[in-house]
Amino acid sequence: MPPRPRLLRALRLAAAAALSPVLASALVTGLSAPAHAADPVEAAKALAAPGVPGANDWSCRPSAAHPRPVVLVHGTFANGSVNWLAAAPALAARGYCVFALTYGQVPGVPVLRAVAPVAESAGQLATFVTGVLAATNAAQADLVGHSQGGMMPRYYLRFLGGAAKVHTLVGLAPSNHGTTLDGLATLAASFPGALDLLNAGCPACADQIAGSSLLTKLNADGDTVPGVSYTVIASRYDEVVTPYATQFLSGSGVHDVLLQNLCPAGVSEHVAIAFDPVALHEVENALDPAHATPSTCLSHG
């Protein structure tokens, strides 16, 4: 059964309500790209998203149970502050060192982030991961990304040396093989001002259209790189990255998950999947497969 329109409207309203105070904070802080810093930790701190519960404690040291810090990578038009209001505290409560960045600012564009060229944003992710590893004394990190944040790290892994620094990449509704302009317009409708930006020019949006030169380059030699574990979590009701099966990856070390195979009643779509308890339970399973438990409609973080 397709998702009920009233429920989806409620989910979007909830996301918008959460977004409002964060937007105010964004206007104060600027959430701008950092200036060059010789200290990798300071460079990473300059990219850190403000006000994320459970995240960006730079004194955190990974435990033996969870030896790798988790870096959260938000999606197009969003920022790290709003995208991870559910996931960050849930993972922190499980004992992870959690870090969240905000990336992809375009000069002259207020508030909206993850709109810069994907390759440029991947460079910011590289800066952030390097700083997180330096701060935590960890050899590798795990990445959890939503939408563009699930695809863009693959550029970092393949072209910017990230494969040596990343153990696991988990993508929630990632744009791995692109989408249509209509799909991006649907996403933009959830963020004030995003439709105008999409119409005026959004480099990250152009990069995510199926068949773009960026995606052609990214996927030319296969979906994965050796040594990294991949999990993709998708929803049948995703109306942004369509068809939803294009989110899935092929190759060794890949685990593709369709939410409705775990909970047939689940109706989360593209935005809501970042807050979905079944999806977040699958994130936890991917980060700690040795202690994974079955995900069902009763799963919670």
Automatic annotation (TrEMBL):
<dbReference type="GO" id="GO:0016787">
    <property type="term" value="F:hydrolase activity"/>
</dbReference>
<dbReference type="Pfam" id="PF01674">
    <property type="entry name" value="Lipase_2"/>
</dbReference>
<protein>
    <submittedName>
        <fullName>Alpha/beta fold hydrolase</fullName>
    </submittedName>
</protein>
<feature type="signal peptide">
    <location>
        <begin position="1"/>
        <end position="37"/>
    </location>
</feature>
<keyword id="KW-0378">Hydrolase</keyword>
<dbReference type="InterPro" id="IPR002918">
    <property type="entry name" value="Lipase_EstA/Esterase_EstB"/>
</dbReference>
<keyword id="KW-0732">Signal</keyword>
<dbReference type="InterPro" id="IPR029058">
    <property type="entry name" value="AB_hydrolase_fold"/>
</dbReference>
